[in-house]
Structure formats: C-alpha cells, structure tokens
C-alpha cells in the first residue's frame, strides 16, 4: 500500500528539496571564507533549534528549559578539555552524554506537567542553573567564564585555524549526523507515538501507551542534541561563559524554530540563518530599533503564514505544482 | 460454568455528597453480550470510567479473569485486555484515519520502543491497520484527517481503535451516538463480527440495537443496578417500565416489545 507523502507513517523519505539545504551549507564554506566563525554559530543555533523541534514539534512538550542542556554540554566540554582530554569529537560526545543524563534525571518529574505549569517549571530550572553556575565560580569561572580550552588537531590532522574553516566543517558534519539520526528516530513507530501524544496524550494512555516513558526518551534525545550544540559552542569559541545558560538563548532557539516552522525538523535549519541574518542587517540598519523589525516579522510569519517559512513555502509550492497526490 | 471475564464488586463513586455509583455488582462472562441501559444520569458512563480506570472508585473491587485490577492504571488495564470507547469521540484530530488506527496497532504490537526501523517498513502492521479501516467501511477516507471527516465516521474510527487493541473485554459507551441512521448497519456488522469470546458491555439508548445485539440487559437507575436479565424479560417487566421508562417510554417500549 502506498502512503501519501505527508503521512507521519512515511517520514523516512527524503524530499527532493532537502539536498539543496546541505549543498548551500557546504557552499558557504567556499563562498564566505571570511565569515565562517559566524556561520558556525548559525549552524550551532540551528542544531539547538532542532533539539527544540524534537520536544516541541513532535512530542508537544512546551519547554523553555532546553538552554539548561545547552549550558551543561557547553561547560562539560570545557571541563573535559581543561582536565586534559583534548580530542574534540569524543569530548563533545561525552559532554552531550552529561546533558542527556541530566534530562533523564529531570524528565520523570518535569514531564508529568503540561501547559503553563510545565513552562513555568522549566523556566525555573533554567534560572536555577544560571544562578548556580554564577555562584559556583570555582567550577565555572563565574562571570569571567572558562577560557583555557585547548583542542588537539581534528582527527590528529586538521588544525583549528583562526579563520574557523575546520570548525565550520566540523560543526556541519555534526549537524548532518544528528539530523540524520533524529530524522530516522522520528520516522520510527516511536516517533509516530510521540506525535500521538502531542495530539491527545490522554487518549494515548487509554490505548495503553507508556506516555511518560516516551516523553522522557524524547527529552533525553533532545538534551543530547542540545548538549552537542553547547559543546560545539565551547569548542569553536575556545571559551564558555554564563551566557550559555541564559533565557535569551532558549528564546532565540524557540523563535528560530517558530520562524522556520515547527515539527518538520527543517524549521531550525531554515529559521536560524534567517533570524541571524535579519538580526545582523537590522542592527546595521538601525541599532536602536532593530527589535521592532524582528518582532514585526515574527508576528507576520506566525500569524499570516501558519507553519513558519516552511509552511508558507509548502503552500506556495503546492499552489504552483498543483495539489499533492493522495494514495 | 462459563469463565468470568470481568467482575466488579461493590463499586461506589461519590462526587462530593452525590453518590453516582452505589455499591454496583457486575459480572460479565466470557463472550457476554450485555447491554447497559438506564435513563440519563443513571451513572452508566461513570461505571465505564470506573471499570476502565479513568475514574478512581471510592470503594469496591474489579477483577479481570480472576486478577485484581482495582489498582491498575488505565494503560495497564488496556494491556490486560480491558478496552473502552468513548461516548464523545476522543481521537487524534490532526492525524489521518489510518494513522489513528496505526497508533493503536503499533502499541498493541509493542513496537513503539523501537526507535530505529522506519514505520513505513512495518508493512504487516500498516496492512493490519488498513484492514480494520476497510472493515469499517472507511477505506475511501483512510488518508483524510479526523478533523475533516463527518462525526458519524469519527465514531467508527473510535470503534476501530478499540478493535486494534484486541480486547478481551470491551466497553462500548454509546457507539451509535451521532452515527447517521444509514451507517448504523456498518457499526452493527462490525460489532457482530467481533470474536465471539470477547465479553462486551454496551451502553445504548436505541432499543433496536439492544435487541439485535444483546443477550442480557442490565438496568441502572440513580446509580444503582435495578435488574439484570434477558432482554425480553427486562422489557416486559412492569417494575422497570414504571421506574425507568415513565409514561412516554412505556408507549415507545410497548411498541417495540410487541415486535419481539
């Protein structure tokens, strides 16, 4: 039996336009060699927004707390390097495992909540982590952060250049691997069950689904991705400060996702560059009032173009190509 | 002696000072086709809630094939084979009919802990979900979202989810409510096609359906069980007529009883 393209049962299929994004990302490396540092941070934020999409877009968990896992990953990567382990890939992986463990510990308590209480509690946890990192200066460097982060050449060969070329490709490969992994997991029966929980969690319980367990697993996966994003942030900047825990970061990630489109995995990948470019150019246009432009655009996209940029693009394309065939 | 599938003893539920289920005893044998009737507010849906675990009883015990399930949560009861449907459709509105049924099929098959194999490669499970969709006459709408289809069709999806869970005891809470008359036949055929050893408790107001489907009838009034018996006996009992049906009901009932 053939499933329609948009069915959640056939999410493993790769769309015709998907390779375009990855080719463009690779092209940036050759076309903008002077801007690779900022481009790396765009990719890292895209990865962070992707972590939001897993919990928000698929499982329907309204959380503001993902910056906690970004921050834990970021500091863990710093400690690993300072402790004397300078290999980047295993360092980032280990740091993300710490984030995932934190999510595994917090999840069973936090995810019993829904709606506003959940938002408030995750917000509270974020504030507590920020303040704890601020006070524990012996561990985190407090306001000064941690800066003596050293990495050995990547794979024993590629030096971490000042221009950020190695770092950019390093981040892009991580993003590609995590994206492929998450796309695969979200196309599994587990991913389908998550979307059932998003639609109607009570009904899922009444068909016998272990709802809390599914939610915790999605939370751990999301935290792992956020943790990698945090670790890459530390590794590419060779510095980590309190900013990684800030609420602004969580909100940035959420805005990028909403701008790009929630629940399709590409939302963050589209939203992050658009948001960062917009921020850059509108700040240049007017350093005092640039937020008006961002706010206005956000209202416009979320209100008029449901489903973010991807939603608008999808509708334009289907208008253009005719309706999608069903069955 | 037939096997007891579901046995409830002394079930009581109070909401504040209001007793909505008072000391209810109910026994369903394996393969039972029991109708539960009673006027609005008699506590029928509350009883289904207590049995399915959606509502916690203040007192009483529930046993499924001899095992005490009083303390089991709804999910565990479903896993043990006690499944209910809802009087008002309770579905996954933005997902398609096939996806709705698939959620139940995959849960029943126990594959939702698999994070790796793509859903689309689970051909057997998708075919199984599709067979249920076809069996309920929903084939033409299988890829449409629940929010887009008529309410009567949604009611059939509700039944489909229950079927997908392969129940041993099935509680049907007014399955025909909201189904257009023309489609009731599909529903009845689906109910009659259920494996004969499933015990079924059917809440229903439509006496035609009760007569056609049930071999036993339990009458509830004001939170208590008034009587249990064969449909013909219940429908001709003078006491039940006076307590439950009232004057208007007697006229209606008398008419249908004559056909029996």
Summed up:
With 327 residues, chain A is mainly α. Chain A is built from 13 helices and no strands.
How is this structure best described in words?
In chain A, helix 2 runs parallel beside helix 7 and helix 2 crosses helix 11. With 327 residues, chain A is mainly alpha-helical. Chain A contains 13 helices and no strands. Chain A has a single domain (8-321), classed as ABC transporter involved in vitamin B12 uptake, BtuC, CATH 1.10.3470. By secondary structure, chain B is an alpha/beta fold. Chain B has a single domain (4-229), classed as P-loop containing nucleotide triphosphate hydrolases (Rossmann fold). Helices cover 40% and strands 24% of the residues of chain B. Chain B has helices at residues 44-52, 74-80, 97-109, 123-135, 151-164, 181-192, 207-213, 231-236, 238-259; strands spanning 4-15, 18-29, 33-37, 59-64, 67-68, 82-84, 169-173, 199-203, 216-221, 224-229. In chain B, helix 3 runs parallel beside helix 5 and helix 4 (123-135) packs across helix 5. The longest helix of chain B is centred in the last third of the chain and has 22 residues, at 238-259. The A-B interface holds A 1, 3-4, 7-13, 184-185, 187-193, 195-196, 199-200, 202-211, 214, 217, 326-327 and B 52, 54, 73-76, 78-79, 84, 90-96, 98-99, 102-104, 106-108, 111-123, 125-127, 130, 142-143, 161, 165.
Number of helices of chain A: 13
Please write the string of helix (H) and strand (E) elements of chain B: EEEHEEHEHHHEHEHEEHH
Shape summary of chain B: globular
Give the total of domains of chain A.
Answer: 1
Task: Name some characteristics of this structure.
heterodimer; A: 327 residues; mainly alpha; ABC transporter involved in vitamin B12 uptake, BtuC; 0% strand; B: Rossmann fold; 6-stranded mixed sheet; 4-stranded antiparallel sheet
């Amino acid at each position: 039996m053939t499933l329609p393209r948009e069915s959640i049962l056939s999410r493993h299929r790769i769309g015709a336009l998907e390779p375009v994004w990855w080719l463009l990302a690779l092209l940036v490396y050759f076309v903008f060699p002077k801007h690779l540092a900022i481009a790396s941070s765009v990719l890292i934020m895209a990865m962070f927004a992707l972590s939001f999409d897993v919990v928000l877009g698929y499982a329907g968990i309204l959380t503001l707390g993902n910056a906690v896992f970004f921050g834990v990953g970021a500091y863990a990567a710093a400690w690993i390097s300072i402790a004397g382990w300078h290999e980047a890939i295993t360092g980032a992986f280990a740091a993300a495992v710490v984030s995932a463990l934190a999510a595994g510990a917090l999840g069973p308590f936090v995810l019993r909540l829904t709606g506003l209480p959940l938002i408030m509690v995750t917000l509270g946890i974020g504030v507590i982590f920020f303040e704890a990192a601020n006070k524990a200066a012996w561990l985190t460097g407090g306001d000064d952060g941690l800066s003596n982060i050293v990495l050995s050449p990547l794979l024993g060969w590629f030096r971490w250049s000042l221009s950020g070329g190695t770092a950019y490709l390093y981040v892009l490969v991580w993003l590609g691997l995590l994206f492929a992994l998450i796309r695969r997991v979200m196309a599994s029966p587990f991913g389908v069950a998550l979307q059932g929980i998003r639609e109607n969690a009570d009904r899922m319980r009444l068909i016998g689904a272990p709802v809390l367990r599914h939610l915790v697993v999605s939370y751990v996966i999301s935290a792992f991705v956020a943790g990698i994003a945090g670790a890459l942030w530390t590794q590419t900047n060779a510095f980590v400060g309190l900013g990684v825990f800030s609420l602004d970061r969580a909100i940035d990630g959420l805005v990028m996702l909403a701008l790009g489109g929630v629940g399709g995995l590409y939302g963050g990948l589209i939203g992050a560059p658009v948001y960062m470019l917009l921020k850059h150019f509108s700040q240049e246009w007017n350093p005092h009032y640039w937020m008006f432009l961002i706010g206005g655009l956000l209202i416009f996209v979320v209100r008029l173009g449901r489903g973010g940029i991807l939603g608008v693009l999808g509708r334009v394309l289907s208008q253009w190509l005719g309706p999608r065939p069903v069955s | 002696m037939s096997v007891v599938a579901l046995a409830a003893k002394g079930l009581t539920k109070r909401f504040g000072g209001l007793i909505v289920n008072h000391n209810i005893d109910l026994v369903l044998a394996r393969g039972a086709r029991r109708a539960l009737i009673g006027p609005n507010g008699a506590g029928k849906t509350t009883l289904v809630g207590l049995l399915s675990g959606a509502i916690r009883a203040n007192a009483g015990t529930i046993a499924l094939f001899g095992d005490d399930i009083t303390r089991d949560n709804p999910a565990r009861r479903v896993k043990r084979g006690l499944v209910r449907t809802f009087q008002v459709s309770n579905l996954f509105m933005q997902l398609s009919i096939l996806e709705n049924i698939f959620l139940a099929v995959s849960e029943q098959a126990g594959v939702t802990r698999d994070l790796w194999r793509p859903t689309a490669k689970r051909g057997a499970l998708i075919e199984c979900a599709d067979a249920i969709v076809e069996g309920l006459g929903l084939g033409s709408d299988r890829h449409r979202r629940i929010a887009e289809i008529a309410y009567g069709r949604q009611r059939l999806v509700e039944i489909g989810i229950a079927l997908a869970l392969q129940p041993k005891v099935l509680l049907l809470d007014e399955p025909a409510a909201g189904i257009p008359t023309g489609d009731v036949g599909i529903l009845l055929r689906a109910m009659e096609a259920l494996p004969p050893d499933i015990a079924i408790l059917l809440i229903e107001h439509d006496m035609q359906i009760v007569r056609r489907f049930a071999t036993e009838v339990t009458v509830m009034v004001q939170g208590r069980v008034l009587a249990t018996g064969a449909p013909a006996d219940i429908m001709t009992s003078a006491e039940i007529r006076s307590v439950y049906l009232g004057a208007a009901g007697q006229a209606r009932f008398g008419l249908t009883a004559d056909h029996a």
